[in-house]
Amino acid sequence: MKTKTAKSSRHVTKDGYEYLTKRELVTKAQNAGKKAAKQAMDTMGYVVTVLDGWVVEKYSDGRIVRLKEV
Fold it and tell me: What pTM did the predictor assign?
């Protein structure tokens, strides 16, 4: 039995090819980054990110350690 695949975009060119708009691309990239950060937090217990002009380590228990000012 064939299953219908979900469309990745509602935008289609005249010749039938789908494409992503900038808004859709940014949204997908942000969601992928959030998912990766959550997986890293679950695996390592911390993530390194930038917060208020500082490179910081955010730990799963809520601690934040400043590493270097940007």
Answer: 0.63
Yes or no: say if 43 and 27 are a contact pair by the CB < 8 Å rule.
no
Type of residue numbered 29: A
CA distance 17 to 19: 7
Centroid of chain to Cα 66: 23
- Residue with more model confidence, 16 or 70: 70
Sheet holding 46-51, edge to edge: 46-51, 54-59, 64-69
Gap between the Cα atoms of 18 and 25, Å rounded: 13
CB-CB contact of 41 with 63 (8 Å): no
H helices of 1-70, where? Answer: 22-44
What's the pLDDT tens digit per position in 21-69? Answer: 899 899 999 999 999 999 999 999 999 999 999 999 999 999 999 999 9
